[in-house]
Amino acid sequence: MRVVRFMGEDFRNFKRVEFSPHNNVNIIFGDNGSGKTSLLEALYLFGFGRSFRPGGFRPLINSQAEKFTLFIEAKSDSGDALNKFGMARYQGGDNQIRINGGGNTKLSELASYFPVQLFTPESVDVVYGGPSGRRQLIDWGVFHVEHSFFEVWSNYNKVLQHRNKLLKRNRSNYSLSQDKFWLDQLSKYGEKITLLRKQYLSNLRKYFLDTTKLFLPNVTLDVSLKLGWDQNKTFEEALTSALDSDLKYGHTTVGPHKADLTITADGVSAREYLSRGQMKVLVASLKLSQAQLLRETTGKSCIIIVDDLTSELDRENQKKFCAVLENSGSQVFLSTVSINNLTENFKERPEMFHVEQGILKRHIEK
Ligand SMILES: Nc1ncnc2c1ncn2[C@@H]1O[C@H](COP(=O)(O)OP(=O)(O)O)[C@@H](O)[C@H]1O
Ligand SMILES: [Mg+2]
To answer: In angstroms, rounded to a whole number, what is the distance separating the alpha carbons of residues 211 and 213?
Structure first.
């Protein structure tokens, strides 16, 4: 997907913003507080439906407005067909999503058009934080590569909720025959989710190892999936063994909802072994390899959003990162406070946009 036109109204500090980005690299620059991250946030919403900053959707609406609206015209990778996407959020909570003038659409449908990869100063937290961030990272990839994933994943989570309710309510008079229905369903959907995640990760691994060689040539890295239960058992067996503790805790203690991504460096846990700086390039490599895998397996290209690049990487890694971005075949949106020294990292001059107090203008160099 490539954005050819972007329009927004009453989004954060933008009363109105409109621009036509370049196919490849776009740089958005401006002082702190001018609106760079807000603009990237607006693009990100089309891929995820929520912001990458905390606070829910209300702070996204301009403080003097009742709603924000965003429009994107985008070209698909398969041809020149122009698709139109619109989104509005109201103070009251209403949420509208439209694709090509159709009726209100589900977020999952919109997201399927917009594979977005994001790099921010916080991206590195995915390795230091809990497993849910790492599951989301894998599942983003599986979702975009494998059409059946979303339904299986939704079904699994519905069943999980039902079963957890049963465990909580009926702790004293629990009956296995009642639970059997949920256990069968859980095990069916859970095995399927796990299979898709495993396949995805084994494909991703190759790209990841190649990309990290470029950024961390002296470290041997690896990634693998932790299933969320004892991997010597089938999920069904693990559910049976966990019955006592599930009853004790009142929820399902094993399963793909507990899965994790294990990252090792020279054979030991990467988060204890690598410096924070090395970790930043590791996370960047991981995300770049996800974009590459997507492109090579489905022909779909990502929209890559990079917030505050200059504060993130040292000069040497910035150069490498920019080169990979430029050659990725993706449309890139990159924000920075200052464009000094940045443009020379690209072979072709990127398109530049300057933001000042919620006003965006194309920057033409004199
Ligand atoms: N809902 C809102 N209404 C009006 N202004 C807002 C709203 N939310 C944030 N802002 C302001 O928008 C400005 C731009 O923020 P941000 O995009 O983070 O800037 P940058 O990334 O360029 O440093 C900030 O000054 C912030 O106070
Ligand atoms: Mg910012």
So the answer is: 5
pLDDT digits (tens, 9 = 90+) for 153-183: 999 999 999 999 999 887 778 888 889 999 9
| pLDDT at residue number 178 | 87
106 contacts 259 by C-beta, under 8 angstroms: no
Q: Is residue 132 part of a domain?
A: yes
- Token pair listed for 317: 């890694």
In 176-330, beta strands by DSSP E:
221-226, 260-265, 268-269, 303-306
pLDDT value of position 235: 98
Considering only CA atoms, which residue is closest to atom 14 of ligand 1?
Answer: 35
SS3 annotation, 225-270: EECCCCCCCCHHHHHHHCHHHHHHHCCCCCCHHHCEEEEEECCEEH
What's the pLDDT tens digit per position in 189-201? 999 999 999 999 9
Domain annotation covers residue 260: yes
The greatest distance separating any two alpha carbons of the chain, rounded to the nearest whole angstrom, comes to: 78
Does residue 16 lie within any of the structural domains?
Answer: no
Question: Rounded CA gap, 102 and 93, in Å?
Answer: 21
Q: What is the mean pLDDT of the chain?
A: 95
Known binding-site positions for ATP = 30-37
Residue 12 CA: which ligand is closest? 1
Structural domain boundaries enclosing 185:
126-276
What pTM value is reported for the model? 0.96
Annotated binding site: 30-37
- Domain count of the fold of the chain: 1
Which residues have any ligand 1 atom within 6 Å of their CB? 12-13, 30, 32-38, 59, 61-63
Nearest CA to ligand 1 atom 18: 37
Query: The domain that contains 180 carries what CATH number?
Result: 1.20.1050.90
Query: How confident is the model at residue 125, as a pLDDT?
Result: 95
